[in-house]
């Protein structure tokens, strides 16, 4: 059970409060998305545009600044407040608009170290390096993330850390530089990476395949061949506030478990765990 952006069904995504709640709800691991600031700090954000998840659009002091992570320093980002992406759908989370800061990878690593000590075993980290337009930017992000993991003593196979990206070139570069398990993220049931040849190729540089829920539900028979190619399979993302309703979501979770997936990313880890426990 991987808390996707923490537990964003209940707290604004990617805030430390969201990650704390995911861990309190029993998530085995959490998944941050990583983007670099102008001064080269890895922060937890899904996209560089800050308008949907912070108060930047209503801040007079940012009126003449670009509203993008890579254009702002960490100090500037820290002066913003996190907000709920989907306030109508998640009023319980929107209640916390303005309470929390944008968080850094280093802050999350310290939080996970505390939780690992409390549990007496490692809490997992599935860190996604967000795709960049230019290879040089992607490599700068890779350098920064690996340096941070090394600083925290986490660049080894027993650290509970997994690195993931949609960009095969980034995953391949990481393979050359770290012993950490790597996840190739794939979107869509028709991806060429899901053909027998594609799976065999992915298995040469990655350890796990993560595929979106609709694609896995459309092709549950993919899990067996992926496993036989030597790849674990994860499904993203379970959302219990889906407009289709809770019974439909529970049915999807059960279908994914029956298909044999090795893990689920969820926006509401407590509800996904409850479905799995009742099943
Ligand atoms: O890693 C699975 C999932 O997080 C990828 O999609 O857009 O939520 O980062 P996204
Ligand atoms: Ca992600």
Low-confidence parts lasting 5 or more residues at pLDDT below 50?
none
Q: In the residues, how many domains can be counted?
A: 1
The CATH superfamily is known as Phosphatidylinositol (PI) phosphodiesterase
CATH class membership: Alpha Beta
Q: N- to C-terminal separation?
A: 15 Å
Question: Which structural class is indicated by helix and strand composition?
Answer: alpha/beta
- Tell me the CATH topology: TIM Barrel
Shape, per Cα inertia axes: globular
The SSE order reads EHEEEHHHEHEHEHEHHEHEH
Q: Largest sheet, order of strands side by side?
A: 1-2-5-6-7-8-9-10
Strand content: 15-25%
What's the number of helices? 11
The residue fraction in helices comes out at 25-40%
* Major sheet size, sense and barrel closure: 8 strands, parallel, barrel
> How many strands appear in the DSSP assignment?
10
What's the pLDDT, averaged over the residues?
Answer: 97
CATH architecture: Alpha-Beta Barrel
Distinct ligands, ions and cofactors found in the model:
SN-glycerol-3-phosphate, calcium ion
Q: How large, in whole angstroms, is the Cα Rg?
A: 18 Å
Pfam families: GDPD
GO molecular function: phosphoric diester hydrolase activity
Protein name: Glycerophosphodiester phosphodiesterase
Organism: Nocardioides anomalus
Task: Give a brief outline of the structure.
By secondary structure, the chain is an alpha/beta fold. It is 37% helix and 16% strand. It has a single domain (2-50, 105-278), classed as Alpha-Beta Barrel (TIM Barrel).
Write the layout of secondary structure elements.
Elements lengths: L1 E3 L11 H9 L4 E3 L1 E4 L5 E3 L29 H5 L12 H4 L10 H15 L4 E6 L5 H17 L9 E5 L2 H10 L4 E5 L9 H7 L5 E5 H6 L4 H6 L3 E7 L7 H14 L3 E4 L2 H10 L1
Helix pairs in contact: 1-4
Bound molecules: SN-glycerol-3-phosphate and calcium ion.
The site of SN-glycerol-3-phosphate has 11 residues, from strand 9.
């Amino acid at each position: 059970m991987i808390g996707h952006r923490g537990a964003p069904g209940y707290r604004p995504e990617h805030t430390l409060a969201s990650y704390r709640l995911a861990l309190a709800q029993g998530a085995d691991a959490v998944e941050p998305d990583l983007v670099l600031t102008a001064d080269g700090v890895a922060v937890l954000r899904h996209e560089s545009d800050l308008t949907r998840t912070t108060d930047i659009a209503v801040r007079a002091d940012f009126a003449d600044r670009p509203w993008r992570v890579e254009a702002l320093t960490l100090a500037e980002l820290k002066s913003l407040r996190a907000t709920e992406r989907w306030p109508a759908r998640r009023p319980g989370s929107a209640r916390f608009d303005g309470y929390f800061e944008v968080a850094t990878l280093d802050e999350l690593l310290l939080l996970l170290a505390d939780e690992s000590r409390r549990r007496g075993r490692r809490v997992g980290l599935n860190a996604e390096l967000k795709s960049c337009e230019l290879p040089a930017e992607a490599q700068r992000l890779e350098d920064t993330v690996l340096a941070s993991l090394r600083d925290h003593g986490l660049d080894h196979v027993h650290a509970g850390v997994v690195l993931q990206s949609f960009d095969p070139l980034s995953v391949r570069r990481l393979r050359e530089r770290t012993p950490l398990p790597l996840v190739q993220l794939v979107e869509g049931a028709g991806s060429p990476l899901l053909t027998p040849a594609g799976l065999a190729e992915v298995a040469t540089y990655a350890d796990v395949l993560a595929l979106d829920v609709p694609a896995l539900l459309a092709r549950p028979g993919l899990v067996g061949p992926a496993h036989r190619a030597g790849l674990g399979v994860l499904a993203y993302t379970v959302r219990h506030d889906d407009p289709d309703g809770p019974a439909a979501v529970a049915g999807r979770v059960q279908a994914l478990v029956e298909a044999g997936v090795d893990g689920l990313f969820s926006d509401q880890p407590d509800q996904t765990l409850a479905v799995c426990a009742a099943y």
